[in-house]
Design brief:
3 domains; Endonuclease Iii, domain 2; alpha+beta; TATA-Binding Protein; 290 residues
């Protein structure tokens, strides 16, 4: 849901409904978008450095034409999905969701590159966002291609490049025990380069089983990959914040991850994934259950 306003000087003005970059980029689903503290956002996604300005309603994408926006970024920002309708439906479910949706009204679920999401969420295990971002940037600057000199931006490294490095070299990115997972994943994909494209053709349950067969990918990471790559919008990643908010708002007691997941799929239905994102952001920002 968007409207292109102008394409002057190869800068694209777009009105995007139900979008706030603070909500979308800072809700835990991505790690390569940054705010300069004044008015500009910069990010690296889909092999491209992107700079945008948001005035509270309209986004100005610098150095981007309409064709590129339609071909790549409409899908990335999930702009053909009606989030206004989604929010109305969820707000009617219960007062907790109504408040969470209102708080994170500008969240849109991104459809990110599958390889990047896999590696990013392997790195995310038992890790805080600043450190996750630092590790990803270290990997990108060490093994990715430089794509913008002015901002010193590097593309996400190809799995083939990482597959042919050593564990000792990867350790310089300070990912700790996760380095062996990074290397193992990259080598497996390098051995089967068509696996990523084939995965997107499979039912979500089969994709989840494949992801769980990778060393270092557990249930939470698998569900993050499914949700944030756009493969399965009913995935419900459960980390400590989601567990706490679900226990606090819906169960009123300590509850197993399995019971939370089963309840979520039954209660939220086809909106399970976006419900998780609203609840996660609301819980984390308001420290619910702490």
């Amino acid at each position: 849901m968007y409207r292109i306003i102008s394409t002057k000087n190869n800068n694209l003005k777009v009105k995007i409904n139900d979008f706030n970059p603070f909500h979308t980029f800072l809700c835990g689903q991505c790690f390569r978008w940054n705010y300069d503290g004044e008015r500009f956002w910069t990010g690296v996604a889909l092999g491209r450095f992107v700079r945008l300005e948001w005035d509270g309603e309209v986004c100005l994408f610098y150095d981007m034409d309409e064709q590129e926006f339609v071909d790549k970024w409409v899908n990335y920002f999930d702009l053909n999905t009606d989030y206004s309708s989604i929010k109305k439906r969820l707000a009617k479910k219960d007062e907790h969701l109504k408040e969470a949706v209102s708080y994170g009204y500008g969240i849109r679920l991104l459809r990110q590159d599958l390889w990047e999401v896999i590696l990013s969420f392997i790195i995310s295990q038992n890790n805080g966002i600043p450190r996750i971002k630092g590790i990803i940037e270290a990997l990108s600057s060490s093994y990715g291609k430089k794509i913008n000199k002015e901002y010193g931006a590097y593309a996400f490294p190809d799995f083939t490049v990482l597959a042919n490095t050593s564990l000792q070299d990867l350790n310089t990115c300070r990912a700790g025990y996760r380095c062996k997972y990074i290397l193992s994943t990259a080598q497996r994909l390098d051995d089967s380069p068509s696996l990523l494209s084939n995965i997107r053709k499979l039912p979500a349950k089969e994709v989840r089983d494949i992801l769980l067969s990778f060393i270092g990918i557990g249930e939470k990471v698998a569900d993050c990959i499914l949700l944030y790559s756009g493969i399965d919008r009913t995935a419900f990643p459960i980390d400590r914040w989601v567990k706490r908010v679900m226990e606090e708002l819906y169960f009123k007691k300590e509850t197993s991850v399995k019971d939370i997941r089963d309840f979520s799929h039954s209660y939220f239905g086809d909106l399970t994934g976006i419900s998780q994102q609203y609840l996660f952001y609301y819980a984390r920002e308001n420290k619910i259950g702490v």
